[in-house]
Prior knowledge:
2 copies of one chain form a homodimer.
Chain A: H1 7-14, H2 18-25, H3 33-46, H4 52-59, E1 64-69, H5 75-90, E2 94-99, H6 104-113, E3 121-124, H7 134-141, E4 146-149, E5 160-163, H8 165-178, E6 184-188, H9 194-209, E7 219-221, H10 226-237, E8 245-248, H11 251-263, E9 273-278, H12 282-285, E10 291-294, H13 297-313, E11 321-324, E12 327-329
Parallel strand pairs in A: 1-2, 1-3, 3-4, 4-5, 5-11, 6-7, 6-8, 8-9, 9-10
Antiparallel strand pairs in A: 10-12
Chain A binds a DNA duplex through residues 4, 6-8, 16-20, 22-23, 26, 30-32, 35, 50-51, 53-60, 117.
Amino acid sequence: MGHAVTIKDIAKILNVSVSTVSRALRDTYDVNQETKKRILSLAAELNYKPNFNATGLAQGSTHNIGVVLPFITNYYFSTVITGIQEVAYDNNYNIILFITNDSSERELSIIQNLSLSRLDGLLVSVSSNSDSCNHFQEIIDEGTPIVFFDRIASNIDTSKVMQGDYKGAFEAVEHLIESGYTKIAHIAGPKGLDFTEKRLNGYLDALKKHGLAAREEWIIFSGFSQEYGETDTYQLLQCEQRPDAIFAVNDRKAIGAIVALKNNGVIIGKEIGVIGFTDDPICTIISPSITTIAEPAFEIGTTSCDLLLKHINKKNFNPQEIILPGKLMVRDSTRRN
Amino acid sequence: MGHAVTIKDIAKILNVSVSTVSRALRDTYDVNQETKKRILSLAAELNYKPNFNATGLAQGSTHNIGVVLPFITNYYFSTVITGIQEVAYDNNYNIILFITNDSSERELSIIQNLSLSRLDGLLVSVSSNSDSCNHFQEIIDEGTPIVFFDRIASNIDTSKVMQGDYKGAFEAVEHLIESGYTKIAHIAGPKGLDFTEKRLNGYLDALKKHGLAAREEWIIFSGFSQEYGETDTYQLLQCEQRPDAIFAVNDRKAIGAIVALKNNGVIIGKEIGVIGFTDDPICTIISPSITTIAEPAFEIGTTSCDLLLKHINKKNFNPQEIILPGKLMVRDSTRRN
DNA sequence: GTGAAAGCGCTAACAC
DNA sequence: GTGTTAGCGCTTTCAC
């Protein structure tokens, strides 16, 4: 296999010093144009590739960024990663992936075992039952920047990228109201999660604005899966006052609602309207197609990564909170005729 | 932030040499039990974490493995990655993710720009239009092991992990036949891709075994997306001899077929049966639910990663080809009543 | 059983 | 504008 080409080899061949080669390669301008050219062309010819372990050791940067998130097996997160990857690739950074399975223990263990020496920064979406976020603060204190996306740790002072949860929920509910629904239920996520709260508030405020009642029995907190969507919906159908529309915290639960309603012979749209949140591709495939708020997943990824790169490249970069708006996608599940 | 704890610090505090610390930490047995204990407990107390840039530099291993694949935004690949991640995590390896967007140019550029010095091995699923695979051979020749999964480069001598494409397809078609369908069409993937060929052959052989005709107009090659599934199906409906069942190369195309048939008022199952391949969760959500061959995506991930680790840890590990069987999931799209 | 020292590939003072 | 040198944190001969 022969050993990989190093700057030493190049230096020897060209009869210059390693530092000259290093400087030429990194475009430091106190290098003679001629020798620089020779160095670059020889490097290209020899297919020289820098050893990042060495550069990392020498100057403490690795061009690796860590991405910590609950899952990747859903549309939203896998699209976010694709966005992150796009920006990272363009800037010559690599993505190291950590999956928490939405378990805070796993998250903690990942973070604590993280070898920061191999990471220039971290992009994270916290797991839903994360009670404390001290471990993140410690990382930041040790000098590794973090940018939170989607599921943020709100008490930590760093950049955050979110979708417009409040506004999206508000818009979703307003759409239901404008479509003529008046008894609007909300099947929410687990309590205590930031974005769940925001969507709930958007829901409540939209009702308030239009002078509609928010009955306690119409608001159900549970998990994020389709199964919870189903059981929540069965519960709603038992209510003393049956709702005529359901705002689901995400598309998975909206799908669960659709399934439950179908099972009970309820005509979706006409009798009970359903709206979700995410715009999972499945929304257009299922019948009836599901009205939803499209989350800008890809942009969340690119924006977060951009921001992290800024934190990495200028320390003391001022933390920013960016909220990317969602977009109402009207489909059959909220059509009354 | 203070600098991170190094073995030097530990050595100084304990009044031993760095080499002793290094040996103790790595469980090399020529270290006094007593001093070893003291070293380990101090390391734990100080929250010592090895600098992998340094270990990488010193001994040429990084505990990073690269994963190169076309997409992550679908059920199959994201589940495979989750499997890979599970094994990597347990063995203290990190995953570095590279997404080719199914473009062979991008793939080539990724591979050529790969800094092998930061990778102990590579897990790859090639992009569909990859004409040449020399770049992979070069990587292997330079000493970095590769394991292929799913979409393999068949002419390269290294370990490969696949699902039972031939057998799965055979079983799918046999299921159709046993369900009473006789005029069975196949909407395939693009020509020239290994697993597409295998599924095609499984289809052909199952027909042959049962003495059924394989008409050329019933076999359509196109892309993998739902849209192709739709257009392929419209084309089938135009055939002189209309087929009474469709074997789709994957679930996405099966969904396309379902949509197209619904649009044309065809009763799925009764008039035309549809079977897919993958077991995307959507199969159970869509109506009618889709019969399919479940791919062992998670196991593909864990198996590939296991195998790669073996290649990394013993050079000259003998390449293995592992085929993991799929599983027939019977649902409504192939029920005739 | 332990220490000294060289070296992995690169960067960054510091000379000249 | 270029070379020399020390050093990043760790492993690994080679002595003792």
